[in-house]
Amino acid sequence: MKKLFCFLILFLSLQSQAQFKGMFGKNPLINLENFDKQRVYWGYFLGFNSYDFKIDYINTPQKDISSKTVAGFNVGLVGDLRLQKYINLRFEPGLYYTQRNLTYTGFDKKIDALREVKSTYIHFPLLIKFSSERIGNVRPYIEGGVSATLNLASNSKSIDDNLQQRFRVIPWTKNYELGFGIDLYLEYFKFSPSIRGVFGLGDELIRDNDPNSPWTGNIQALKTRAILVNFTFH
Q1: pLDDT one-digit tens code per residue, 163-183
Q2: DSSP track, 126-194
Q3: Over the stretch 62-88, which tens digit does the pLDDT of each residue have?
Q4: Which residues pair with 18 in a beta bridge?
Q5: In the predicted model, is pLDDT for residue 5 greater than 70?
Q6: 6: enclosing H helix or E strand
């Protein structure tokens, strides 16, 4: 039985290696040769994210907040419009779950020092994709564009503030995005892993009711910074 099991493992390994060489070796079998000639095509993505805040202070020597990121999850759809051979317009609406933990100095109690900022984003990026020449079954690309984001957990309508452990931000934000990725042409579909940075353009913080609040009084601007890692299937 053990010999049969070892034989099956060896056979599957050799088959996988042969398939890999056939797709990405020196003289690969070309998959989905006419895929990129489509005017419009669709897909979906899964991935993870790391959201953070860029904090600008009024009194710059005094940095009294530390921010810790918590890995989040992404899922969404992709619409791709071919503009010409090397340029595509992409719309990638998605749902993003994430969390950032803000720790304030100067407090004795954890309930006052820690703010767990949980966010559920509906993200609307419009991107221009610049692709290189296809080499076998591989095609690298870079992309960039703008996006708008709706935070469903912003607490923007709450009258409570940090005095009642309620951290508030505005619901809508605008961003610019830059990233890169690679298209891999498999036998039945195109697989595209990518990495993208998100940079918030405006201040997102809603100040506390007290202008001298120890939680928001020294913050000049609070802006989103994020890294998105997506795995797209077309």
Answers
A1: 999 999 999 999 999 999 999
A2: EEEEEE---BTTEEEEEEEEEEEEEETT--TT-S--GGGT---B-SEEEEEEEEEEEEEE-SSSEEEEE
A3: 668 888 999 999 999 999 999 999 999
A4: none
A5: no
A6: helix 2-24
Closest CA to 95 of 70, 69, 118, 123: 123
Distance CA 28, CA 233 (A): 21
Rg (CA), the chain: 23
pLDDT in tens, 128-168: 999 999 999 999 999 999 999 999 999 999 999 999 999 99
Residue with tokens 């309508």: 157
Q: Give the span between the Cα atoms of 62 and 106, in whole angstroms.
A: 12
**pTM of this structure:** 0.83
Question: Could you tell me how many residues make up the chain?
Answer: 234
Residues 52, 227: Cα–Cα separation, whole Å: 9
Q: Are 105 and 127 in contact (CB under 8 A)?
A: no
Nearest to 217 by CA among 65, 51, 54: 65
Pairing of strands 219-233, 172-185: unpaired
CB atoms within 10 A of CB 4: 8
Residue 46: predicted pLDDT: 97
User: Quick one: average pLDDT of 88-109?
Assistant: 93
**Residue in 205, 17, 231 with CA at minimum distance from that of residue 100:** 205
Rounded-to-integer distance, Cα 75 and Cα 46, Å: 5
Q: Which two three-digit tokens encode residue 94?
A: 């998605």
Q: Which residues of 91-102 are buried (b: 16+ CB within 10 A; e: fewer)?
A: ebebebbbebeb
The token pair at 141 is 């690309």
